[in-house]
């Protein structure tokens, strides 16, 4: 599973770095098209990363609650804080996408 994830990650990294190199034409509309496509891929990657991280955090919290139900308030607080910080990745990416596409 880790090998497949690394191969997919490397391919996405390769394609995302190749896009700005290919978008160096003198036509502004062509460049804007590649900026929009790259922004869409960036948002998709951020969403996938957030979903995987949130799933892992919730899994760990459920396992912790099953092992020690008495620690529910502290586990719940740390879980919510972690989920907020994980979700901020997607929100910052969305902000950058909006700024980059509108400029």
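-> sequence recovered:
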């Amino acid at each position: 599973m880790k090998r497949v994830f690394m191969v997919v990650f490397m391919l996405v990294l390769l394609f995302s770095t190749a896009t700005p190199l290919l978008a160096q034409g003198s036509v502004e509309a062509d460049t804007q098209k590649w900026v929009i496509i790259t922004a869409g891929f960036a948002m998709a990657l951020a969403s996938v990363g957030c979903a995987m991280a949130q799933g892992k955090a919730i899994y760990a919290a459920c396992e912790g609650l099953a092992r020690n139900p008495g620690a529910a308030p502290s586990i719940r607080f740390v879980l919510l804080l972690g989920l907020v910080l994980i979700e901020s990745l997607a929100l910052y990416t969305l902000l950058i996408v909006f700024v980059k596409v509108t400029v």
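The CA atoms of residues 71 and 95 lie 36 Å apart.
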